[in-house]
Sequence to fold (130 residues):
Amino acid sequence: QVQLVESGGGLVQAGGSLRLSCFVSEPAGVTFSIDAMAWYRQDPGKERELVAEIIRGGTVPDRRNYAEAVEGRFSISMDIPRKTVNLQMTNLNPDDTSVYYCNARGRAEVVTAIKYVEVWGQGTLVTVAS
Fold:
């Protein structure tokens, strides 16, 4: 199965920066073509929230969307050849503390079939100390 591997979470002081990374791990015989990737976050007892997403534009520029709470502080980017998405987080504050989940939407292709799928990472904890 296609899996997402996340890294970069940890503890940081308020005002500091972190970069989260997520890459698509393809099993043998499967090719995953990315349509969009995103980062979400979720606190205990709360609804999972979209933080940032990047949608491949094909013949037009990629589209990026950010939650209002992170607009201007977070930047999402994608490396298609490496099938990796990065979230550069700056000027972090304690409200950014959460478990962050990578998300990918695309097409899983094998010799005999193609399947549109949505894949989630296991989550990586970001803690911002005041």
Notes: The mean pLDDT is 96.
